[in-house]
Amino acid sequence: MAAAAGGGCCGVLYSFLFEYDTPRIVLIKSRKVGLMNRLVQLAILAYVIGWVFVWEKGYQETDSVVSSVTTKVKGLAVTNTSELGLRIWDVADYVIPPQGENAVFIMTNLIITLNQTQSSCPELPDKTTTCSSDSDCTAGYIGTHSNGIQTGKCSSAEARSKTCEIFGWCPVEDVTKLYPTLLSSRMLKTSPFWSRITFGIPSSTSRSMYASLKRNILPTINSTYLKSCKYHPQTDRFCPIFRLRTMTDAAGQDFQEMAVQGGVMGLQINWDCDLDKPYSRCVPKYSFRRIDNKDSSHTVSPGYNFRFAKYYQTAEGVDSRTLIKAYGIRFDIMVFGQAGKFNIIPTMINIGSGLALFGVATVLCDIIVLYFMKKRYYYREKKYKYVEDYELGNSTSYGSQEESPQDRDVR
Fold first, then answer.
1. Domain annotation covers residue 395
2. Residue 353 and residue 246 share a domain
3. Is residue 145 in some structural domain?
4. Which of 187, 216, 277, 350 is 20 to 30 A off residue 90, Cα-Cα?
5. Which domain of life is it from (predicted)?
6. What confidence score (pLDDT) does residue 24 get?
């Protein structure tokens, strides 16, 4: 067995070193095989022409877009609450910070705590702060969600259970005071927030190695038009001024719902320019989608919010602040796209690749003919011909039932 195995290995090695395979053209007259071969070639031709060249523009060399974006928000909103009274909100109040990099935050709701000073006051009640006596409080203790450092005393505030006293910014923020939304349905009827506040991108520029500087304010747009236009996906696709409602509706969201706990919206600007066409047809396309997860049942902290404070001193020289927990919508502006132009190099590469794909039809037909058809053994005899080394004086051919006149001449 060992000798046989050794002989087999030697035979394989001998065949590898001293045998040569060369293609042989065999014309098979079969309707099935011929039709299948033409169908595969037709499919490959359709792929190369339709997909590679027409749809994917394989004759072009492309370059990515480099862009810069600036934003501007305008408009007023009106609220009337028991805590703040009648109040006007302008851009300086609800756009935080005033300038953002490719993003802008618009506050739509808030929890405000007025006139905080550093003093002692009761902590908000929870399972770690409720107490019945001073022994339940630990002086110097600071929890993860504490609003200050415990003094070791147990105190109570009006309409609250007893809680441990803290030293910190007092009175502490009461998160239960979150409004259903400052922009309630009643307020929206008298002072529609999404109609009065607009979000504009007055300067979104892009360029590539092929295209010169291009702005989203088209040459046909003038200052008079910008003062009155509003973006609409059907009637005015090129106006760079957007209503909040238009953007949320285009993303399939309810603005009134997002205004309560906030959210993150993506404003996408797509510059997809075919520079083989007139340069004026290189225009931006706007789209909108919500980025954060609005499903609060699967999110620990739904929406979008943060805190900031405004500091001042009282007439007595006491440091005070107004703490604001701001809920709102953050708009992330994402610019992407590419510019393409005809180039002979990618054209020739894709043509060569397409021609090479035509070999797939031959391989597929060979597999079917040699392994799956009823007369596969007959076709295999016609396909392969085994020839001994003529220089060794043994030119006997086998593997075929008939010899050609050229074979007889060689012998």
1. no
2. no
3. no
4. 216
5. Eukaryota
6. 73
Average pLDDT over residues 55-81: 81
Residue 278, helix vs strand vs coil:
coil
**Each residue's pLDDT tens digit, 180-226:** 555 443 333 333 443 457 777 766 666 666 656 777 777 778 888 88
Residue (of 181, 206, 3) closest to 108 by Cα position: 181
| Residues spanned by the domain of 81 | 64-123+172-342
Contact of 36 with 373, CB cutoff 8 Å:
no
Of residues 147, 182, 316, the one with CA closest to residue 256: 182
Is residue 216 within 8 Å of 240, Cβ to Cβ? yes
Q: What does the DSSP 8-state code read for residue 101? A: S
43: which 2 tokens?
A: 């499919």
Give how many domains the chain has, as a whole number.
2
State which amino acid sits at residue 143.
Answer: G
Answer whether 0.85 is exceeded by the pTM: no
pLDDT of residue 186: 38
Residues 6+ apart with CB under 8 A from 347: 58, 59
Alpha-carbon dihedral angle through residues 296, 301, 302, 307, given to the nearest 10 degrees: 150
CATH number at residue 238: 2.60.490.10
Shortest CA distance to 183 belongs to which of 107, 246, 129? Answer: 107
44 within some domain:
yes
The SS3 of residue 252 is coil
- By the 10 Å C-beta count (0-12 exposed, 13-18 middle, 19+ buried), 5 is classed as exposed
The predicted pLDDT at position 3 comes to 53
Burial, 70: exposed, middle or buried (Cβ in 10 Å; 0-12, 13-18, 19+)?
Answer: middle
Res. 49 pLDDT band, cuts 50 70 90: very high
Number of neighbouring beta carbons within 10 Å of residue 149: 15
pLDDT of res. 390: 62
- pLDDT, one tens digit per residue, over 332-375 is 988 888 888 888 999 999 999 988 888 888 888 888 888 888 88
Compute the distance between CA of residue 172 and CA of residue 164 in angstroms, rounded to an integer. Answer: 13
**Residue 322 — pLDDT band, cuts 50, 70, 90?**
very high
